[in-house]
Design goal:
Layout (H helix, E strand, L loop, with lengths): L2 H19 L8 E10 L2 E9 L10 E10 L5 E3 L3 E4 L1 H12 L12 E4 L7 E9 L7 E10 L5 E10 L23 E9 L17 H16 L4 E12 L5 H23 L6 E8 L1 H9 L6 H10 L3 H9 L5 H10 L6 E9 L4 H10 L6 H9 L6 H13 L4 H13 L3 H4 L1
Parallel strand pairs: 5-6, 11-12
Antiparallel strand pairs: 1-2, 2-7, 3-4, 3-5, 3-8, 8-9, 10-13, 11-13
Helix pairs in contact: 5-6, 9-10, 10-11, 11-12
Length: 426
Amino acid sequence: MTIKNILITIAFLAAAPLLMSQTGYLDEVSVENSHVEQQNDELSLTLDIVLDGLKIRSNDMIVLTPVLVSNTDEIELELAPVVIAGKKRSKIIQRNIRLNNPTGFDAAPYEIVRRKNNTSQQVAYNTNLPLRGWMKDASLELRESVLGCANCDKGVDFLALVPRVIPDDYSPTYKLTYIVPEVEVKTLSDRHTAMFNFEVGRYELLRNYKSNASELSGVDKVVSDIKNNPDFDITEFAITGYASPEASAPYNRTLSQNRANSFADYLVSKFNIDRSRFTVTGHGEDWEGLRKAVSASSLVDKQAVLDIIDNISNLDARDAELMKLSGGETYRNLLNNYYPPLRRTEYVVAYSVRPFDVDEAREIIKTNPRLLGLNEMYLVAQDYPAGSTQFKEVFDIATRHYPDSDIAILNSASADIEAGNMDAAI
């Protein structure tokens, strides 16, 4: 061999490592924070592809593809690839995209990155995919494919990332969430019924007439307990007067309205409550109440009475039909035993409740929790150690008093989970 040939051979051998180093770039790429997690029926995958040490040739393109590979079967799933391109290759790709020309990608890329050598760059890769049975024993790797000018293939390499994406001892991870309820204006209302007696055809409310003194004493106690409580402020009275069906419907409606107004006047005078806070309604004849009472009775003509109420729309025409039953005996029975309870006055007292601090609320929740809002109950719970019996009891009380509140239900479920009571939570 001549000296010239020897020198050429030596030069070629010296250049070989350099040429080989240009076929792949995987050793210049690092992957950080790779994490795979099962979330119900999905697999969540995240990883950061760090390019800080990558120096790519201008014409080269690197395709990095995360791949799930079964550890037991010949099954694998390629995810959306990350494409990293040198300066010239990046321009070609972008031009093809703009002109709707083929890009040569086997799958739509997760992201296309133009590599700026000697700068800090990374790709945050996040994806969710449906969980398949084989994935429970699968590994995650990153495959590299390098293409040079004219799309010449420069080789394939791979990097193992996660040996088993779902550990054998997998168990669901529950994230406990407690939601702070909004502060609210607390308004309560109490419904009561008074059975006042009135002289026939009259609407004046006389305290000393029949049993009115006893009825009014009951009313006085109800209203006094609210009005004299410094924690309450009466906001509204809703009064509804009801009449029994004898006489004409228009007459009874007017009579029930006037009698309800008499009761409102009594409350204004007795308790010095502003008349503007009253809503007064004369309901008139209470056929609905009569039907309910007869339906629950053993009245001889029970079905006939119900048919008259259900099928005759003219209220005054019903009276004549009722009088025909059993020679008038049924109607007399209705007058004496079923009509009197229909003559009543129903009233609803609405009142606001002042806010309570935590010390006050901690005592009130033991005796009268309906006075507390959800926010106040939440603050009481936070005053106890998390997971303690008192902590859990407060959230249970909240769900009983606010059964339609999603926040109350969610917080109670979180407390159950924290206490290890999964069945109750779910």
